[in-house]
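Table 4 source record.
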Amino acid sequence: MEHYTSLLAKPIQSYRPYWAKRFGAAPMLPMSRAEMDALGWDSCDIILVSGDCYIDHPSFGSALVGRLLEAQGFRVGIIAQPDWQNANAFKALGKPNLYFGVTAGNMDSMVNRYTADRKIRSDDAYTPDAAPNKRPDRAVLVYSQRCREAYADVPLVIGSIEASLRRIAHYDYWSDKVRRSILLDSKADILLYGNAERALIELSHRIAKGEKVADIQDIRGTAFLRKAIPSGWTEIASTQLDRPGVIDKAVDPYEMKMGKADASCATEAKPEQAALPEGTQAIALVRKPKADRAKQVVRLPAYEAVAQDPVLYAHASRVLHLEANPGNARALVQRHGDREVWLNPPPIPLTTKEMDYVYDMPYARKPHPAYGDAKIPAWEMIRFSVNIMRGCFGGCTFCSITEHEGRIIQSRSEASILKEVEEIRDKVPGFTGVISDLGGPTANMYRIACKNEVIENACRKLSCVYPGICENLNTDHSALIQLYRKARAIKGVKKILIGSGVRYDLAIKSPEYVKELVQHHVGGYLKIAPEHSEENVLSKMMKPGMEAYDEFKAMFEKFSLEAGKKQYLIPYFIAAHPGTTDQDMLNLALWLKKYDFKLDQVQTFTPTPMAMATAMYHSGKNPLRKVTADSEDVAIPKAGNVRKLHKAFIRYHDPNNWPMLREALQKMGRADLIGNSKQHLIPSWQPLSGKPTTTVRGQPLERTIRPRRVSESKRKYS
């Protein structure tokens, strides 16, 4: 069943193609004038500028967007990883007829270039031979400036992950301050947020028909600047909806209760009617009709206010996340000086037919020939993988998938996915019969949705699986099981691997799925993400308790044993997440010690723009509840030495960390954990040299466990 049928949206494949459709599909989208000449083009209609190298594969945003626009009849050129020192590289394809589309690439440029400790990374997975420094800091701002210098009169459209997550005033970890909406600093004409196919196609056709970008202000999933609120709109202050500060207890309009309404607000008290004087008549009071939500705009506190007041910042973050369901979200507005940043409601999710349309384009499925034989790590990672869905309803506070892709799962059809598996078999050089991944932002949310469209359209919950799995969520994994079986039955396919991304609290609702996964799709190790062992921290992450992990682990081991296989779970953990104390990290270290986990690399929390955990980090408040000056304070491990200590606890087995841990344990009154027996956490002696061996449950780990860039790295943003 396709949800959101009640919300009208023109199918993206139903537009009349632009006249340049006659040129047909290009073997590769051109990156030079010579390639344009070979295609018979005198100019490009749209030029996409990206911080990634150009790989013609649907996992890479510039390729997906480019092929989509090409299918609409537009001539699309690519300027990939340009030299940003001057505007010359931005003139390489000439002046675009319609607009420049600017993106930092599949990742936020700051997350891509810097570690969690704000150190510059030594490589870039989206660059040939992983060469560093091929993109600038805040790439969208720099590229936008150069586009303006190249052709000042060409409309400028920004989008993808970096722009999407900076659409309002946002805390910036790297400068440690609240920055303005990227719309103002980039001087862009319009911003497309989320997976923006629907908005992009409509915008492109309307510009092509002669509409000015400044006049296009009615497309969902877009943000732009205004001088004032237009007439006919009702403005509601966010502080009236979710009032910050010390207030009397009142009905919370954002609180979701699936049961009966509270008796205090379900009915109004009816006082006894007094006797009326003779000759008078009672007149019934008629309530005003419910306001039209389509003409309501919620005013967030101004940039100047949230920049100065962390409590207001956390409040604004909470309201933005609660106004994120396409079924009921209202427009948002936030003043920046004398201008208004206006956000239209989120885009209507794509139907399965539309998803197939996006992924069935004639992708070459390889890097542009200009890169020669260079190795591109991001390409090597996904070249034999298939994206089957997008979106995530998990709502993890540290992750930006939900903020960008939304929490409504959008799935491809089985036929489209199997066709892509066959294309990989037939077209991609080096295929050995192994599909490296069949998934998406998560591995096991394919075709899972709310049981009731009416409930889904009205819901304001931040997660469908926290604090427990919603009773209205259909957890049936049968469609995914069937997909697995059909995919591995394709001639020439030896193995379909699922290496990570399993939402295990959801998986345990379907033991049949866990059995199918473990016995046929695990290549020795399965990476899962409990993230922490302590409920105090997990509640700030909106992650399930360890009971769900233990249940999944028991299933995993049972089905592995039945299959006669030795297989291991590799857990991911985050150090220094908001809400974490030294004691929490010690407890996690003891948990790791108990189960003999010795992990080589650790993910330290990185505050990324717009994530709710980032609002916690900046404000010290918990935006998962109503934010007030007196509301719950959240412990924030900000100091560098504290963050290092929390990371050291997870890597308790590394001799380099022992001096720091000894000092910390003594201060914590836990010197009893220092000693030379197996019962102690760390030894009292220090080796002269040598590196620790990375093991999992006592077994050497033959391949490196690479750290996740939690918020934005894993895959497929357009």
